[in-house]
Amino acid sequence: MGRGEREVVARGARLGEAARGVAGDHRRAVEAVRAALRPLHEEVVARELGTIPVARLQDVTEGRLRLGAVEKSGLDTVGRVREAGPYRLRQIPGVGQRTVDQILAAAARLAEAVDETAAVHIDVDRPEPRTTALVMALHVLVEAGPEGRRAVDRAEDLIRRLGPLLEAARHATGALRMLLAGAEKRERALAAVAELRSLAEEAERNGLHESFAQTSVDLLRPPDELAAWADFELRSAEYYSLLAEISGRAPDAAAAEGFLPEEVAARVRGLRLDDSQRRVSLRGYQDFGARFALAQRKVVLGDEMGLGKTIQAIAVLAHLAAQGEKRFLVVCPASVLVNWTREIEARSALRVTVLHGPDRQDAFADWRERGGVGVTTFEALRGFPEPAADEVAALVVDEAHAVKNPEAKRSRAVALWAGRCPHALFMTGTPMENRVGEFRNLVRMLAPDVAEALGEGDALVGSVAFRRAVAPVYLRRNQEDVLTELPSLQQTDEWEELSAADEEAYREAVRAGNFMAMRRAAYARPEKSAKLGRLREIVEEAGENGQRTVVFSYFRDVLDVVRDALAARPGGGAPVFGPLTGSVPPGRRQRIVDDFAATPGPAVLLAQIQAAGVGLNMQAASVVVLCEPQIKPTLEHQAVARAHRMGQVRPVGVHRLLATGGVDERLVRMLERKTRLFDAYARRSAVAEATPDAVDVSDTELARRIVEEEQARLGVAQAGPAATAG
Question: Residue ranges of the Helicase ATP-binding domain (predicted)?
Fold first, then answer.
């Protein structure tokens, strides 16, 4: 008794020391964020109080204050009243001490309300020392990533558990101590030693010492200013999410939970999400959405466009995989199949199999045997063998409103699979409150009892009543309810597989050696264009949510094709403005933008990226579509900045349409070889801000290389002299 126990206690003490070290490093990193945030937040509060008329103090005191003399003295805002203080207020004729006390108390209550709701905006276009300090402090924590967060959580759990165990086990570290201890203490000491041994062995198996050490290194690494700003631009949502968490100014909990009834919300809160198979952090409302899908098992996730439904679905699959489930199926339109595949690969550790194309039956057999996530289309699903009950752990259906017609073959196939899977997640950004008939058809596949209880008039009594009726199966959040920061920027690469007609047009352009024709070949046959189909879907979903869209292309003829395609929609759809091109005089361009902004409800603006990317403010648009990748990154950056800027009242979603296997993929790959720091430097240089043509990426050489590589890949001989980048 003694030596072995001493070694166990020593191991436990070392583990505790490592845990306290990483927890302390994390605590200091969090405090650095709070210290950097404090002056910025105080400035925002002061600025907002400076805009509130002093008459608003009447609201706080139910009209008991007489403020005429205060206003006449020049103290016309709540901010000025607080700055003046009691002495200045007492000098105003007719204002006594009691009134002064009431005024300052009312002003303090308003200031508290503003303090709770004020949000700091980080302006990437106008960085200054204080915002730079905040971005750098946040960068440390963001760079530590989900692995760092998990390490800190484990460390804090160990600290809580090890303290009492080490205290109880100290009696077992020597024979004399054990002899002098009473029977009860000896028993507790031996039990504590056994638990310490178990914790130490588990920590060694899981590599916790190494994990703690790496996390400490990450948290102590001095941030680089340029790297921090570049990273913030790429994933600002993660920075704002972390900022809301640290500041305690998270979105309203009821809004983040979709205003669900308490009995449903409480069930969801009780489920803990396993993130060990996931490679991306979730925002609070996204975490709740994933837990809702798991807790309720078969649901419709109807979050507004731009809130990350795909990430929530991946979180659900990753959780189930971590629990030992083997097979999952995603069903989606063909236009987003490649996008789903890439998102799953990038954001999780799950194996992905594409169940599409001529070899889909072989791929299906392979997926069925080896497991992972199968990704298929509505059309292909009908040709696969019916699954056995519980053979597939979860079915995810994207753009689920596509199966609203119960008589359609695709709807029947989806209903069959949904009935055989323990979990089913239907996703749609189309609001369902006023489409009770369609909504009931979707819900019938998931929860027939809820569908039957839902009457045609339920939506007419108001959104709150509707959501209560469908709470067991339906969750929808809106952007303004759950995003507390000023607008974020969410960029999505929409990878599309070219149709047969697209491929034919592309081959002709490659054979001709015409680089510019290759770039726009995806629009050469509009009736069969995969990109055009996805563009229509994006515009229609934006319109369903009352959002305005701006569509950019380098090519005038592509914009003409887009205009014709949008005009051919049933009922005409949202009004289309433009195109804005280089031939449109500057004054006329601004009038077109003003008319677009003044349109009530959804609208679409078409613009040549080199003509509209500079000098025009398009903050009326909260959805941006780039028809093709640009050769110069600055061209895209400045075009997006027309919508994502001060004055924008909604988060901006950017969709870049890309075709797989050809010029788009090569362009993107070549441009991504440049490091983040170089891109950030180019964007931030004074010359680059002045004109998108300032960064020379050797356009002609780039075009020549891509043309030659594509001719070699496709095995076609050049019909004439190669075209340059133009």
Answer: 290-449
For residue range 231-264, list pLDDT tens digits in order: 887 677 778 878 888 887 666 677 788 888 888 9
Three-state secondary structure call for residue 384: coil
Instruction: Report yes or no: 128 and 185 within 8 Å, Cβ to Cβ.
Output: no
432, 435, 441, 446: CA torsion to nearest 10:
20
Q: What is the mean pLDDT of residues 162-190?
A: 74
Do 250-482 and 489-714 have matching folds?
Answer: yes
Listed residue (21, 379, 78) closest to 219, CA to CA? 21
What is the rounded distance in angstroms from the CA atom of residue 436 to the CA atom of residue 458?
8
Query: Which 8-state DSSP code applies to residue 278?
Result: B
Q: Which amino acid is at 612?
A: A
For domain 489-714, give the fold.
Answer: Rossmann fold (3.40.50)
The pLDDT, as a whole number, for residue 697 is: 41
Asked if 268 and 299 touch (Cβ cutoff 8 Å), the reply is no
Q: Which amino acid is at 267?
A: R
Angle at 478 between CA 473 and CA 481, to 5 degrees: 115
What's 125's DSSP letter? Answer: T
* In the block, residue with structure tokens 């927890």: 23
Considering Cα of 642, then 646, then 647, then 653, what sign does the dihedral take? positive
CA distance 494 to 491: 10
What contacts 492, CB < 8 A, 6 or more positions away?
Answer: 339, 653, 654, 655, 656
| Domain spans in the chain, listed from the N-terminal domain onward | 1-249, 250-482, 489-714
395: enclosing H helix or E strand: strand 394-397
Express each pLDDT in 643-675 by its tens digit: 765 345 467 889 999 999 899 998 887 766 543
CA neighbor of 99 nearest in space, from 466, 686, 445, 107: 107
Helix (H) or strand (E) holding 346: helix 337-347
Amino acid identity for residue 544 in this structure: E
What burial class does residue 719 get, using C-beta atoms within 10 Å of its C-beta: 0-12 exposed, 13-18 middle, 19+ buried? exposed
Q: Where is pLDDT greater, at 615 or 175?
A: 175
Strand order in the sheet with 327-332: 352-355, 372-377, 327-332, 394-397, 423-427, 298-301, 474-475
Fold of 250-482: Rossmann fold (3.40.50)
SS3 525: coil
